[in-house]
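Running this now, will post back.
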Amino acid sequence: MENWICAKDFKDIPIIDIFDDSVGYQTLPISPLENYHALFRKKLVLAAKHDEMYTLRITADDSYKLYINGQFVGQGPACGYVSRYYCNEYDVSAFLQDGTNVIAVHCYYHGRVDYAHISGDNRQGMWAELYEGSVRIVKTDADWRCLRDTSYASNGASWGYDTQFAENIDRRKHPHGWTKTQYDDSAWEHACVKSDDDHVPVRQPTAVVTRYRVRPESIEKVGAGQYLLDFGKEITGHVCLETTAPEGTRVRIQCAEELTGDGHARSSMRCGVDFDEVWIMRGGTDSIESYDYSGFRYVEMTCDDASVRPEQVSVVVRHYPAPRKRIFTSENSLLQNIWSICENAVIMGTQEGFYDCPTREKAQYLGDMLITGFSHYYITGDTDMLKKALLDFAHSQRIDDAMMCVAPSGLRHKIADYSMLFPLILLHYYTITKNRDFVRQMIPAAEKVIAYYEQYKREDGLLQNVTEWNLVDWPENLRDGYDFKPEQGQKGVHNVMNAYYYGALKTMNELYHIVQIDRLYDAAAVKRAFYMAFYNETEGLFSDSEHGTHFALHSNVLPYFYDMTTSAQNQKIVDLIMKKGFSCGVFFSYFVLKSLTNHGEKEKAMELMLSKGEHSWYNMLSEGATACFEAWGKEQKDNTSLCHPWACAPIIVLCEDFGA
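Update: finished.
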């Protein structure tokens, strides 16, 4: 990208190809720099603002926060592969003034290979252009000033799966007032121009995240200088403190999704994030806030200095814009509460993508997107994020034709079940948008997935010995005793993998018909082979493994969902579903519910949604959920996230099948 600028530490270090197939993750060169905050400034003089619109185009690696004349403008970009790197565009006319102006950009480079970033590759810096009408009046070049901000100390602590560093912020090291015009940056270094930069820019097709400040619903003193702030429900954002305190005052900030037995914030969250930081004041009036975000409900503040008050703490909530297309109301209070926790999880989990959780991975999973993406659509009416997500996963095939299960991401990670869902998600996208041109554009990506997995076909057309992760369901203890264990190296064919494969072929044939492509997969042959391998005439059910004797919920719901069954067989499967209930993970509950409603069994679907067993949304609510969980209960998974939108199937079912 022309005129890319970076901090001097990144000027001459070689790029690391983190997607190099010849190098495993364990042997990747380690980037010498991580958790790197860099501040960039550019002054410009406007003798008189014209009536033209002033447009700023900007991007950064890994991310930025943009200020003009001390005012926050926006942040971004959405994570993207370097070969399709997202850029944002802002109308900044209202932020500019006659005379001296300053554009100030806080850039962040994470520096590790993880789920949430494409980082650890030594690509750092930013690019920006300011236009007055159609005339470029500012570009990024060596005239910009740059300073590394060392006030965000992690002390070696990272959270989740290395997706976030601790931010022990020392405001004494931070250049106070650096975003404002009167700040003197003459001692800062000049930015370095990266002449060999290889980012390929594309305009981000979605809006940047929206931000708004919230105050706690209640404040409780829980010890000497200790205050517990309850924000009422799970939120996603970062903590702010506006105070006047003596230099060196230390404030401990702990965030939590739940409380300990003695009523304190459980900052060591069960999901694997440990949100426990110490901030040091610079002295005088100050506003301090963390850079990164997380998901939480409670904040516990500890400070011995009486000048720091809990009322001075707030949270800047952030998520993708979510205007409500639907306001759901029900006389059934349980159903109303189920909608509420699902809606909150979807809103808080949709950031620059459909993230599986805003705490641990902060990543967009392909399978999760089937639930979160369409739930988000029914809440907001917005399809831009769905389209972007489909493009993101299609673009991940530059790494592997199988398609990444997490994209965009620094990880090379595949789940066979999820790849097989790409055609189904594309079909659903067409159903709500009628965008044939986009379907036609995406069909080659879906074909690549199928072509990749055809390497595992045996003579009858079934897939065997698939080496990519066969998820079946997650966590493993919610597979209803599924007796084929590919994760333990078991060889052969199994039901779920081939049910998804059949579903992908069947769906592709529907997509071909929609875009009038004269091509068909032989789905019928796969269906015949599926029956030969898994159908048990005596039981009238499908087994998990070839000619097996165990009949898991999953092995029967999927053939029912994909219309492989006859009406006589359907009754057997419905009886099985109602007997077993949700003996599955929360993700798979979508297939359970939709298989019922698709076949006219709406009353039974509602009965399951409103069930009060151990595996139910009622159970989440009984455990204090304000957003739906990663599993049916806090103890049903060893690191359960308490905000996981893949559990939001009721939103889709209520909207599609019950007229919500």
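The CA atoms of residues 44 and 101 lie 5 Å apart. More later if anyone needs it.
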